[in-house]
Amino acid sequence: MALLAERELGPRAMLIARRAAELLPGCAAVVYAIENPEAPAWTHKATVGEVRVEEAVLAIDQGTLGALGTALAEQQTALILSAENLRREDYAHLTVRRTLVSMAYLPLFNNQNQEVLVGALELASFEEPLTEELLSGLGELVQVAGPALGSAIAYEQERNSNLQSISRLAQFYDVEKVFNATLEMDELLPLITEKFQQMLSAQAVHLWMVGGDGELLLTSTAGNDPTVEEGSVQRSGEGIAALVSDSGEPLVIESPEHELLQARNQGVEDGAIFTVMAAPVLAQEKQVAVVEAINKMDGAPFDEDDVFLLTTICESAGGALHNASLLQAERKAEILETLVKVSTEITSTLNLDRVLQTVVNGPGAVVPYERAAIALEQRGRLQLKAISGMEQINPEDPDVGRLRGLLQWASMLNEEILVTQKEEEISADREETRAKFERYFAESGMRGFYALPLLDQEGRVGILSFESSNPDFLSEVHFEMIKVLAGQATVALRNATLYQEVPFIGVLEPLLQKKQKFLAMEGRKRATVLALAALGATFLALFPLPMRVDGGAVVTPARTAQVEPEIDGVVRRVFVHEGSYVARGEVLADLEDWDYRGALNAVQAKYQTAASEANRALAANDGAEAGIQQVQAQYWGSEVKRAQERLEKTHLRSPIAGWVTTPHIENLVGSKLAAGDNFAEVADSSSADIDVAVDENDLSLVTTAQGKGEVPAAIKLEGYPTRTFRGTVMVVSPKSHTEEDARAFYARVSVSNKDNLMRPGMQGRGKISVGWHPVGFVFLRRPAMWLYSRVWSWMGW
Fold this sequence. Notes:
Layout: H1 2-5, H2 9-23, E1 27-33, E2 41-48, E3 51-53, E4 57-59, H3 63-75, E5 79-82, E6 94-96, E7 102-109, E8 117-125, H4 132-135, H5 139-179, H6 185-200, E9 202-210, E10 216-223, E11 233-234, H7 240-247, E12 251-253, H8 259-264, E13 276-283, E14 286-296, H9 304-347, H10 352-361, E15 371-378, E16 381-387, H11 398-413, E17 417-422, E18 425-426, H12 431-444, E19 448-456, E20 459-468, H13 476-500, H14 505-519, H15 523-542, E21 544-555, E22 559-563, E23 569-574, E24 581-582, E25 587-591, H16 594-619, H17 623-648, E26 651-653, E27 658-660, E28 672-673, E29 680-684, E30 687-695, H18 699-708, E31 712-717, E32 720-732, E33 737-739, E34 742-752, E35 763-774, H19 775-795
Antiparallel strand pairs: 1-2, 1-8, 2-4, 3-6, 5-7, 7-8, 9-10, 9-14, 10-11, 12-13, 13-14, 15-16, 15-20, 17-18, 17-19, 19-20, 21-30, 21-35, 22-29, 23-25, 23-28, 24-27, 25-26, 27-29, 30-34, 31-32, 31-35, 32-34, 33-34
Helix pairs in contact: 2-5, 5-6, 5-9, 6-9, 9-10, 9-13, 10-13, 16-17
C-alpha cells in the first residue's frame, strides 16, 4: 500500500531500500534503476544505511554491478560476494563507513517472467555474511519492487513526455509572440534567425529573401558560418537555398560527403558544414524566403523531427513576414502620396518662401528626420534660406552657424554625401571628413547627415540636407523619395527665383503714365477728381459693413456609438430596425439567457439556504455556526449580485440617444455573437458639425472674432438650396489642408439638426460673420495684401 501511495521513482525506491534494511538488520541498502533500456545504465535512486554512492549514474558493466549484469545474462539469479574476495576497486562507487563483511545484489524485474530488468537492490553487510537463506526473506519485497519500479519509470517517462510537449507548445507560443511583436522588417529579420537558431540548436541559421527577379539574397544570419558572406546572392541552381526555392520542398543533408556540402566547404578548414537542412517560407501561399540551418550543436545530423520543427516555425515566420511586408507597402503608398502632395504644392506657386518651407517641412510626415535645410546659390554665394520648424532663421544662433558652414563645405563636393556615427565610429573615407563630423555631431547632437546638390541644366541651384540623431533614419525607400523630391524642388526653386528677379519698373511704368495724364488736366477738373477721391477714401475708411468669410462646407460624420455585447451569446430577439430612434439605455435586443437565469436561481437558492442556516443557528444559540453561515450568506449574496449583472448583460442597450443605422438588423435573430462583436451602430444626429474651409489669408479674421465672443455662421447645402442653417463656430483646425490648390483651415460649425435633414457628406457653402469693418477693409483687403506681399518680396525690407 505504501508503494501504491507513491507514483514517482525516487520515493518508491526509498521505500524499497528502507524495507530491505528493516528485514536485514546491520545491512545498508541501495536501489538502482535502469530508466532507458535502449541505453542501459545503473541510476542511483535511494540509499539507507552507512554507505554513500559517489556517482549518480554508473556504467552497466562497472564493478560489482557489472558482475550482476553478467550473472543475470548467464543464470538470472542473485549475486553474493564475500569481502575477502573483493578488491576496493570493485565497489569504488561506494563510500563505506564500517568494515564490510559481504555484499549481495538482487535483480529487480518488471514482470514475473523475469524478462525486463528495471533495477537492482544492492546490500552491504557489516555484521554477518549474507547467505541465500537470509536473502530469501526478501522474496516478497523483490517480487513487488520490480513492478513498482517499472510502473514508476513508465509514469515518469510519460510525464516527461508531456512536459516536453508542453515545453514545445510554450516555445511555439513564444515564437508567435516574438515574431508578431514588431512589424518593422529591419527588426523582424534578425529576430527570425535568432529564434530559429535557439529552437533548432544550430550553429548558424540563414534567412534568404526572395528578390524581385527570383534570386535569393542573404538578408540575415544568426551564428557563425564561414562558408557564406552576408549579402550573398543565389540564383536558380547555384546552392542549397536556391535548390529548395526551386523545388518548394524542405531538404535535409545528413552527411558531409554530399556533393552540395563538398562544394560549399571547398576552401574552408575551420567550421565546415557536416549537416544542413533548409525549408521554404510561405506567405499567403507564395514563397517569400528560404531558411537554412547549419550544423547541430550536439554534433548529430539533422533528422526528420528537426525538419518538422523547422517547417512548423516557417509557418509562423511566413505570417510575420507577410504582415511586415503589408506595412512596408502601406508606407510606400504613404510616401508616394506625400511626394505627390509636396510636388503639387511646390509646382503650384511661384512664391519662393512657400516653396522653401514646403520642401523642408512637407516630407517630415513620412521621412523621420529631425532637421532639414536648404541653402541657395545667390550672387555667387551659398545662403541658408530655410530650416524645418523655423519660420525665420536667426543668423546669430550657433546651431544655424554650424549648419551653414557644413552646407558650404558639402556644396563644394558637388555630390550627395551620407555620414553617420554609430557609437564612436564615423562612416567617412577621409580623415578630414571624420574629424569635421566628429566635432559637428558632438556639438549638434545629430548622428546622421545626408545632403545632395540641387542641379539643373543651368547649373547648381543649391543644396538640400536632412539630419537626425538616429544614424539609420533613412531607408532605401526614403532615399528614392528624397532624390525625386530634389529634382522637382530644383525646377520649382529655379522658377520662383527667376520670378523674383522680374524688374520692379514693370509695375511702376503704368503708374507713371497715369500720373502724367492727371497732371495734364486743367485745375478745376483736377480739383474735382481730388475731391471725389477724398470723398471715396472717406467712405471706404469710415462707413461700416458686416464682413463675412466664405468657403466650401462639408457635413462631417455624425457622432456614432457601437453596440457590442459584453458576453458571448445568441441573439434571441431584436426590438428595433434600421432608422429607429432609440433613447440612451434603451434595449435594442436580448441574448439567450437560460444559462444566466439558471445560474442566478442556483446562487439565490444557495444564498437562501445559507441565510436560513444562519437564522437556525442563531435560534439555537450556536454563535460559531451562525458566524460561519453568515459568512456563507455574504459570499452567496455577492454571487447573486454577480449573476444578476451577468443576466443584465444579455440586454443590449444603446449607449447614446440617436438613430439605428445598421441595415437589416432584425435579421440578426439567431446569430451567435462573441464578446466585443459589433451588433449595431447608433448615430446621434441631433446636431451636425459642418467644416467650412477658411482661406489662410482670412484665418486671422476668424480667430480675432473668436476672441471677442461667439462667431455666427450660415450654411447653404446643395440638397436644400432654399434653406439656411445657422450655427456657431466651435473650433478652427490648427493644421492647414489643401483646397483647390490653396491652403485652407477648417472652421467647425455646430448646427442643430433636430429634423435629421443634414446627412454626413453633404456639401455646400458656408459664410462666417467676423464683425463690422469699414467698406475699404471689406472690399480692398485682398488686393492690398497681395500688393504688400509683392512689394515686400521685391524690396526685401
